[in-house]
Amino acid sequence: MNLRKLWIQTKKELDSSNINDSIIESEVILRNVLNLDRNNFFATLDKNIPTKQKLQIQNHLKRRLSGIPLSYITNNREFFGINFFVNKNVLIPRQESELLVEQVISFCKKNTKRQFNIIDVGTGSGAIGISIAKHLNNVNIIASDISDKALQIAKKNANLVNVNQKMSFINSNLLEKLKSPVDVIVANLPYLCSSEIEKLSPEVQNEPEIALFAECKGISLIKKLVEQAPNHLKKNGKLILEISPTQVTDVISIFKENFPESYPEIHDDYTKMQRAISLET
Ligand SMILES: C[S@@+](CC[C@H](N)C(=O)[O-])C[C@H]1O[C@@H](n2cnc3c(N)ncnc32)[C@H](O)[C@@H]1O
Q1: Three-class SS of residue 94?
Q2: Which among 47, 56, 190, 278 counts the fewest CB atoms within 10 Å?
Q3: How confident is the model at residue 132 (pLDDT cuts 50, 70, 90)?
Q4: 127 CA distance to ligand 1 middle (Å)
């Protein structure tokens, strides 16, 4: 069977399971197994595919149809224009979290003579901290997580992106193990409520629970982090967190209680949802 027929067949099977973007997903599955970039994919549509690779494609497809996210099958997710290795031990970085990276980069660019110490709390794959490190010279990034398995992936990505000289890694429950105050605290912590689990797509249900859920309607970790932050954030520093749009009012109150002299600012994501909150000290 040639590549074109295999592509059509793969797409049809994804369609029959109501998987959106079946045309792109089928292309990505095929390119991943055949190790082809887009140009070579379209240039070789008439080429016959050897049985061994056909079987690998069928295996990928079977996993995808069982609800495993495509990024876990291909072990890849692009975030902030960078390819990250991902597997079932880390959250698949979301495009909306690029907002946090943009905000931190613009804060640090205001003073290029200053060296910024930044902690990325709940780093997961390292997507946020590594993207910041890739775009700025004047930064030291501490990537922290409570999951050792996630930290292993973050270290792997720092090596792949070649920013490891700007990074260090700690296993810490929120800021507990942070030794000295920092200039920036950035975090995309779990903020879903566990009662929402059944409403989530099979793909999201395949992501690690520790990366998704927090107690008290999803707000408990955010609250604890903001309570710890005043002891760990330097003057002229920045705190920025990703939140659910439903948590805005509660999180503003938590910010005001813990930082009475600063003004919280809400940031919209690319879909115009209120997705992040920040303040400067
Ligand atoms: C929503 S994921 C975000 C991952 C990554 N920052 C991103 O944006 O793609 C949350 C991360 O927080 C970590 N985490 C959960 N509880 C934590 C805690 N108490 N202290 C530190 N990290 C925690 C999880 O292991 C997970 O990697």
Answers
A1: coil
A2: 47
A3: very high
A4: 11
CA of 122 from ligand 1 middle (Å) equals: 3
Closest residue by CA, ligand 1 atom 27:
124
Q: What residue ranges line ligand 1, CB within 6 angstroms?
A: 91, 93, 97, 121-125, 127-128, 145-147, 150, 173-174, 188-190, 210-211, 221
Residue of 87, 147, 269 with the most ligand 1 atoms within 8 Å of its CB, for mutation: 147
3-state secondary structure of 169: strand
Please give the distance, rounded to the nearest whole angstrom, from the Cα atom of residue 126 to the centre of ligand 1: 10
Phi/psi of residue 174, each to 5°? Answer: 50, -125
Residue 138's Cβ-side half-sphere holds a number of Cα atoms within 13 Å equal to: 15
Task: Tell the residue number behind the tokens 């973050």, with chain if given.
Answer: 154
- Residue of 188, 226, 275 with the most ligand 1 atoms within 8 Å of its CB, for mutation: 188
Q: Provide the 10 A C-beta neighbour count for residue 107.
A: 20
pLDDT at 186 over 90: yes
Reported as type and span, the H/E element at residue 84 is strand 82-84
**Tens digits of per-residue pLDDT, 107-124?**
999 987 789 999 999 999
pLDDT digits (tens, 9 = 90+) for 13-54: 999 999 989 999 999 999 999 999 999 999 999 999 999 999
CB 103 within 8 A of CB 131: no
Sheet holding 233-242, edge to edge: 167-171, 139-145, 116-121, 182-187, 233-242, 274-280, 265-268
For residue 276, the cross-strand partners are 242, 267
Reported as a single tens digit per residue, the pLDDT across 233-273 is 999 999 999 999 999 999 999 999 999 999 999 999 999 99
Q: What is the pLDDT of residue 118?
A: 98
